[in-house]
Amino acid sequence: HPPPVAATAARTTKEDVLNLKGAQKFRVKDWELARFSSKVNKFRPAHSDRSTDCFEWDEQFDIFCSGARGLGFLLYQWDPRSKHRLCFYGNVNLVSLLSSFRQRYIKSEKIALSLEPKGQLYFEVTFAEVHEVFCREPAQRSGVFGVPLDLLARREKSSIPMLVRKCIDEVERRGLEVAGIYRLCGSSRNKQPVRDALDRSAAEADVSAEKVPDIHAVTGVLKDFLCELPEPLFTNALYRMMLDALQVRLPGDPKGGAKLMLSILDCLPPAN
Q1: How many whole angstroms separate alpha carbon 76 and alpha carbon 57?
Q2: C-alpha angle 43/125/178, rounded to 5°?
Q3: Coiled-coil ranges per the record (predicted)?
Q4: What pTM was estimated for this model as a whole?
C-alpha cells in the first residue's frame, strides 16, 4: 500500500496548476518512478532498465492540483515477471509549499526530497494559475486549438473536428483497457509533438501506437483541445440550466429529470 499523505485542514485553491519538471537525479538502481498521489490525479510512470546509482528521469507533467494536499513519489523495483515491489517513497506537502511560494512571491523552486528509507530525489515544481495555462479566447490562427467549434465545422466540412475523431478512435482502438484512461496525466514532453502534429494537419497526423506509444499523450491533447475552446463544449448559457435539471425530481415520473436534461442537450449548437 502506498504511504498516506499527511492530512491537513488547508487546501490548494481551485486556480492552481502544478508543473513538475525534470527530476534530475535519483539515487536508485533499476527503479520505476511511480505516480502523483492526491484525490484523483496521477501521472504515468517512467521506467529505466539501466543499472545506475544516479538515474536521470527527464520528464515534465502539468497537473491540476485543486484540493490536492500532497505530492507523492513512489519508486518500485521493476520486474516484468511479477508484481513490482515498492522500495522508496517520499511526500511533499503542497499546501505548505504553495503558502511558502506566495509568501516569498515566487512560482518555481528546485527541491531535494529525502526518500524513505533512504535516497534523495531532485526535481523542480512550478505553480501557475489556470488562466495562465488555458485561455478561452478565440484564436486568430489557422490551427485547431482555440478555434470555435462552428468555425472548425465549416472549415473541415464535418460535424466533428478531425482532431476529436482521430483521438477518440485511437483511444477506442487501444486505450479502453488502460487503467486511468482520460484521468491519468501523460508526460508534457510526449504530448507536445502530438499536439503540434494535430495542430498543423489533423488529417495527416499519425497518432498510432508506433508513433505515439503512450495513449495518455493522445488523451491529453484531446483534453487540451476542449479546455482551450473559446466557449466550453457545454455552453455557458446552458450550464446553469443543466445543474438545476440535475436537482429536479418530478412526482410520479422517475425519468422526468432525465427527459429534462435531454431536452436541454437538444438546445446545444449543432457543432457542440
Answers
A1: 14
A2: 5
A3: none
A4: 0.69
Q: Is 41 helix (H, G, I), strand (E, B) or coil?
A: coil
- The dihedral sign for the CA sequence 68, 92, 182, 139: positive
What does the DSSP 8-state code read for residue 212? Answer: -
Q: Where is pLDDT greater, at 233 or 139?
A: 233
Q: Per this entry, what is the length of the chain? A: 272
Contact (CB, 8 A) for 33 and 90: no
Mean pLDDT of the chain: 78
Q: What is the maximum alpha-carbon separation in the chain?
A: 68
Highest mean pLDDT: which range of 152-166, 228-242, 257-271: 152-166
- State which amino acid sits at residue 263: S
Provide the 10 A C-beta neighbour count for residue 223: 15
Which grid cell is 209?
501506437
Q: Which domains does the chain have, with CATH numbers?
A: 16-132 (2.60.40.150), 137-227 (1.10.555.10), 236-265 (no CATH)
CA distance 59 to 33: 11
Whole-angstrom CA distances from 186 to 9, 28, 63, 202, 261 are 29, 23, 10, 20, 33
Cell match 464535418: residue? 158
